[in-house]
Specification:
Elements: H1 3-32, H2 35-41, E1 46-50, E2 66-71, H3 74-81, E3 90-95, E4 108-114, H4 123-133, E5 134-145, H5 151-168, H6 180-183, E6 186-193, E7 198-204
Parallel strand pairs: 1-2, 1-4, 2-3, 4-5
Antiparallel strand pairs: 5-7, 6-7
The structure holds S-adenosylmethionine.
S-adenosylmethionine is lined by residues 9, 13, 24, 51-53, 56, 70-73, 76, 97-99, 114-116, 119-120.
Amino acid sequence: MTDATLRRLSRHYDALAHTYDRALDRIERWLLGEWRARAASIARGWTLEIAIGTGRTIPFYPDETHVIGIDLSSGMLAQAKQRLSTTKALIHLIRGDAQQLPIRHETVDVVISILSLCTIPDDRRALAEAHRVLRPGGTLVLVEHVRSLNPLVRAGQRLLDPLSVRFACDHLLRDPLDHLEEIGFRVLAVERRTFGIVEWILAEKPSG
Ligand SMILES: C[S@@+](CC[C@H](N)C(=O)[O-])C[C@H]1O[C@@H](n2cnc3c(N)ncnc32)[C@H](O)[C@@H]1O
């Protein structure tokens, strides 16, 4: 992956930062239901949220949890900063690349990703990084939009994917399940909703 790809992505989200929440407010309940709050409730100890964006998960984190939120876009992070007053969790916002985390090996208890792996250029590499920084026994929580199991919906996604990738930096045909076990995660639970395009995955990095 080139620096140019990351710069393009970062510019794309910088430009969206002021309108992102308004757009998500309209569809989040339909798309995710309560899954964002459920993901945040699993946070404990040191939690890392990759591609935290405008910090929509921040208000749901339990009090006193240490959360490191990483994102590529300074515009998105500036919006996230405005949410810090809505929480008693201890949030540390960092500009960085989820594919190359500035975090030491096996120092994190929980990694959370919400609607991010569709955008991160190399989703497998971001998952491998999540695995690297998690302590043995640590938890991975994913809430992602993925390719549907329904052939009709999937055909629509196939049609739209080239446009979506080109103009919205958003991949419609990915699924983290393609990579998790090969990277070394043990998948504990999978659920789907919203025509099968949204997936909840709970996984762990096995200890020992
Ligand atoms: C669709 S938004 C999701 C934001 C947030 N997770 C949410 O739930 O609203 C995708 C986010 O991924 C970030 N992103 C994309 N590639 C990234 C990378 N390589 N490293 C860190 N953040 C990245 C973008 O800047 C953007 O904020």
